[in-house]
Amino acid sequence: MYTSGLLFIGTNEIIIIVVLALLLFGGKKIPELMRGLGRGVKEFKEGQKDDQNAESNTNTTTNNDTVNNQR
Predict the structure, then answer these.
(1) What angle do CA 5, 38, 18 make, to 5 degrees?
(2) What is the pTM of this model?
(3) Which among 3, 36, 55, 66 is least buried, having the fewest CB atoms inside 10 angstroms?
(4) What is the pLDDT along the chain (71 residues), one digit of tens a residue?
């Protein structure tokens, strides 16, 4: 199946999507939805950073324990 053509959205398609969103949600609800989406993305990124920090601390502790056990 030819899917690479589906990856590119033109100006007309974007306009249609925006108009449909306005019709479905209304002008007052869209800023609230975007605000919630932004908060979700922010929390997701913070969660990723926390996981990376926890992994690096675990790796450092494990490496130090291994070095101490070898002595």
Answers:
(1) 45
(2) 0.50
(3) 3
(4) 556 666 688 899 989 998 998 898 888 888 998 999 999 999 999 998 888 888 777 766 655 555 555 55
